[in-house]
Batch of 3 targets.
Target 1
Amino acid sequence: MGGGKMGETSGTVVAVSVSETHTFSKHNQESIRLVSGLGVEGDAHAGATVKHRSRVAQDPTQPNLRQVHLIHAELLDGLQAAGFHVYAGQLGENVTTRGIDLLGLPAGARLYLGDEAVVEITGLRNPCPQIDNFQPGLLAEVLSRKEDGTLNRKAGIMGIVLASGDIRPGDSIRVELPPLPHKPLERV
């Protein structure tokens, strides 16, 4: 379906995490349940409308395009190599992946996680200054400027749940690209 070779990209779930409250970090779990149209069962950000506190203050009726937060383990590897102590779930992600260039996916790409769950990618996570409260200097590592002056957001991607299912570490991830032309990810 318009995916070509990249549509066959596959990766692995490294960790799954959840937090019932609006904490910065999430707790690793043996498995999580993705619920169609809502997000991660038991997570503070689950819901059909926005749950992120700053967005609720702007307009609580906005659709929740940030039901699931995914980060590539390769980012965590790089941060650890730079001297930061950061592990799966600590940057607030629900799903930590390996083997997929999450930031290179177009809007509308679908991730098939495990046997049943499907997440449609909506955009980039916009890292906030809270990340420096977690570890000083971390914001500069996940948010930089490209040569053309635009922001380079590296703190993961956001998506909505299209199909419910349980996912756990070790599950496979298959990527299906949307039809051309592809739209680059923007912050959501």
Note: Confidence is low (pLDDT under 50) at residues 1-7.
Target 2
Amino acid sequence: MKHSRAKRPDIRNPIRSPGPELAGLTRRALLQRAFAAGALTVVGAGFIAAPNAAWALEVTTIKPEQMAALVQMARDIYPHDRIADAFYAVAVKGYDSADQKALVDEGVAALNAAAQAQGHADYVSIGWEEDRVKVLQAIETTPFFQTVRAGLVTGLYNQKDIWPLFGYEGESFSQGGYIERGFDDIDWL
């Protein structure tokens, strides 16, 4: 994943416009707190921090809570223990747009309503994957679920940085095909 220097957050600068409970915290300290909490942390307007302090995501159109739900939903739909949440965040970042806002507003509301029907505060607060999957099954026929699930196929698996985790070396046409390149060297099949 490539970032330009201009868009990369400077973790040495304090967070702008913090709430009273975050006044004076640096981004590094904030991310360390997120790690200690053990879950995606929604902080202020438009900022989500990861539990492992390895990434953060800024949202502009949808609410940070909605993006946190999308990231968790992506991980629950296509669970891979060896893939970091940052890759799931990249896969759903496209839903932070004006043309997707209504779909996300309604979809996350339905997701949280399904979680509440099963006795939880909201989808992201559900601790067990098995319980989150039950919530997803309750909304799996909705256009929201189908759109997110279908978008994840390319949004997640087209990220070249995760291909080595699956043993995929990429396309072969530009390198003369697979026959002379060890096409059968994948040991996990």
Note: The chain has two domains: 20-158, 161-189.
Target 3
Amino acid sequence: MRRKQLNESVAYLKEKGFDNPEIGIVLGTGLGKLADEIENPIEAHYNHIPFFPLATVEFHAGKLIFGSFEGKKVVVMQGRFHLYEGYDFTDITYPIWVMHQLGIQKLFISNAAGAINLDYKKGDIMLIEDHINLQGGSPLAFKNVAEFGHRFADMSEPYDIEMRKKIEKIAKNENISLQKGVYASVVGPQLETKAEYRMLKILGADAVGMSTVPEVIVANHLDLPIVAISVLTDECNPDQLKPVDIQDIINVASATEPKMVKLFRELIRSL
């Protein structure tokens, strides 16, 4: 990755008014409504930001939004990037580097995922405690990575313990059912076979998706505390597997999103 490109992206956003955001938020599939609650929003479409990738997935909006949320300055990614779109690891994590350069001190991530743990149900929210990288690579595998942070990033506790505890307390106070578990990240875009779901369960995954882990690796590389939530949109039971309707996944994510927004809202208020 070239620092010159990163500097140009950041300079463009600062010129538009992206002024020292404190918190970065990545919104996953079907989870874009939080952006509607940003006060005094300033928008930058991905196709206008120098060196930014373009969102190619039809249900991802494709813009950065800066503004206030619960009294904190935030920058929100409405639409993320995935390996399955043909991008590489540097492309899909580029916004994390940019948000870090803008000044964020914490990173919130959301995604839609399938429930591998059959005790978890469609519409549940899962707080990610750990992950399994099954994407076959690393966003830190480039020559000059040491210019930006730790080449050998420690991943012994990739998700911030303090923010996780706060999320658990908020969920309890708000009567929001909160699962906890391990998220496995695969390439996609095809969904898994019965045998693959069985494999994921054996590996120790509670949920599976096609994002998040690369962003988390980069955030750890940059010493950026992270909290991540999965909205579980389908149940991956290999013994009763039925074809998945992507629109149904979007609908479940949208219906569950208010709970996720509530958790993020109260966590930001507590910081």
Note: The helical segments are 3-16, 89-102, 161-173, 194-203, 213-221, 246-270.
